[in-house]
Backbone:
């Protein structure tokens, strides 16, 4: 089987019941990955002030 990235020869690796294909020429690994970036929820000024006040009360 040929590498979809560079056209080199893929090698199959297995560990237990899992298998994957890898290219030693370009480093391609047939491993699904999610590269979407999600911004954290924004905090309102009121929420930030309350969090700060609550933290001061714990001391």
Residues:
């Amino acid at each position: 089987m040929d590498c979809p990235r560079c056209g080199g020869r893929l090698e199959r690796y297995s560990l237990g019941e899992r298998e994957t294909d890898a290219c030693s020429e370009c480093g391609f690994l047939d491993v699904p990955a999610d590269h979407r970036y999600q911004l954290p929820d924004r905090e309102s000024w009121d929420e930030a002030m309350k969090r700060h006040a609550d933290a001061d009360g714990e001391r």
Summary: The CA atoms of residues 23 and 33 lie 17 Å apart. Residues 45-57 form the longest helix (13 residues). The mean pLDDT is 88.
